[in-house]
Design goal:
By secondary structure, the chain is α+β, with helices and mostly antiparallel strands. It folds into 2 domains: about 50 residues, no CATH class; about 60 residues, no CATH class. The protein is built from 5 helices and 3 strands, in the order βββααααα. Strand 1 and strand 2 form a beta hairpin. The protein is elongated. About 15% of the residues have low confidence.
């Protein structure tokens, strides 16, 4: 089994925000520690992707995919424009509009009746 490398997030309690370069924003806690497999850390380093940036992006995109945050909030958390965030999410297979077949059919019917 590979060793794990802890990822620590520092929180500035006085300013109520993460210290520059920290993983999470707008979280009311003292810090977060995530243990990552050393092989994963080495892979991210080889790809020249900072571990904190990769973790932040994956967490935000997954929350967006699950409908837990808006594209605007996701953009804010990743430091992107809203359009940039939507494009990044789309490039990773996360659709901007997430409609069921029935919802899509209803939308089409309503559009035709206009």
């Amino acid at each position: 089994m590979s060793a794990v490398a802890p990822l620590e997030i520092e929180w500035d309690l006085q300013r109520e925000r993460p210290v520059c370069g920290s993983l999470l924003e707008n979280v009311a806690m003292g810090g977060v520690q995530i243990e990552l497999d050393q092989d994963l850390v080495a892979l991210l380093q080889a790809l020249d992707r900072p571990v904190e940036d990769a973790a932040r992006e994956l967490i935000v995109l997954e929350l967006y995919r699950e409908g837990e945050l808006t594209s605007g909030k996701g953009a804010q958390l990743l430091g992107l424009s809203r359009e940039g965030f939507i494009r990044r999410a789309s490039a990773r297979g996360i659709p901007y509009l997430q409609l069921s077949r029935e919802e899509l059919r209803q939308e089409a019917e309503e559009s035709e009746s206009l």
